């Protein structure tokens, strides 16, 4: 009888600086699986991030630097998005929202063919494990209000202002 061994998963992390505070990047088997801000809601416990090792994050860090410098509008990185099929479908929709634009939770629900699922879309949006790169900050309330953001409404406001080129009108809080 042959014993089967469960596949082991390697997790690594590093911390990079940003204009919005330190960002913790987490990889699963060398693929970006998390981007977490300080004080972020739904931030996993630090002990789940694995060993500190910057090597898997060279390209992610380069693209984040280019984004924050205003030189990159669309990220092109392999992602390991661990979530339910519905959550992954919402996160896929987030990646279709163009730089500098916003969509409402209702619009995303309609795009998914589930027009009554605005609240479920909001919950999935809040569980996005790779903020900024999967741009959950681009989702707003139906009235145009800045509703919930795992990284805090102040960061959401600053990210949106940055993408619209009006960041200098927004006070820095970090």
From TrEMBL:
It is found in: Cytoplasm. The active site is at 136 (nucleophile). It catalyses: a 6-O-methyl-2'-deoxyguanosine in DNA + L-cysteinyl-[protein] = S-methyl-L-cysteinyl-[protein] + a 2'-deoxyguanosine in DNA; a 4-O-methyl-thymidine in DNA + L-cysteinyl-[protein] = a thymidine in DNA + S-methyl-L-cysteinyl-[protein]. One of its GO terms (molecular function) is methylated-DNA-[protein]-cysteine S-methyltransferase activity. One of its GO terms (cellular component) is cytoplasm. InterPro entries: MethylDNA_cys_MeTrfase_AS, MethylDNA_cys_MeTrfase_DNA-bd, MethylDNA_cys_MeTrfase_DNAb, MethylG_MeTrfase_N, MGMT, MGMT_N_sf, WH-like_DNA-bd_sf. Residues 85-164 form the Methylated-DNA-[protein]-cysteine S-methyltransferase DNA binding domain. Its EC number is 2.1.1.63. Residues 14-80 form the Methylguanine DNA methyltransferase ribonuclease-like domain. One of its GO terms (biological process) is DNA alkylation repair. Keywords: Cytoplasm, DNA damage, DNA repair, Methyltransferase, Transferase. Belongs to the MGMT family. NCBIfam families: ogt. This enzyme catalyzes only one turnover and therefore is not strictly catalytic. According to one definition, an enzyme is a biocatalyst that acts repeatedly and over many reaction cycles. Involved in the cellular defense against the biological effects of O6-methylguanine (O6-MeG) and O4-methylthymine (O4-MeT) in DNA. Repairs the methylated nucleobase in DNA by stoichiometrically transferring the methyl group to a cysteine residue in the enzyme. This is a suicide reaction: the enzyme is irreversibly inactivated. This is Methylated-DNA--protein-cysteine methyltransferase. It comes from Streptomyces atratus.
């Amino acid at each position: 009888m042959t014993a089967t061994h469960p596949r082991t998963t390697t997790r690594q992390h590093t911390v990079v600086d940003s204009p919005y505070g330190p960002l913790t990047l987490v990889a699963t088997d060398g693929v970006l699986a998390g981007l977490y801000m300080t004080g972020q809601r739904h931030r996993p416990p630090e002990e789940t991030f694995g060993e500190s090792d910057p090597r898997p994050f060279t390209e992610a860090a380069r693209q984040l630097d280019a984004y924050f410098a205003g030189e990159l509008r669309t990220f092109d990185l392999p992602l390991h998005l661990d979530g339910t099929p519905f959550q992954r479908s919402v996160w896929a929709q987030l990646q279709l929202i163009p730089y500098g634009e916003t969509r409402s939770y209702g619009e995303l629900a309609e795009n998914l063919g589930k027009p009554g699922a605005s609240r479920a879309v909001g919950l999935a949006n809040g569980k996005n494990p790779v903020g900024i790169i999967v741009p959950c900050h681009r989702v707003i309330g139906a009235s145009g209000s800045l509703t919930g953001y795992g990284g805090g409404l102040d960061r959401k406001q600053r990210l949106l202002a940055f993408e619209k080129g009006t960041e200098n009108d927004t006070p820095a809080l970090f």
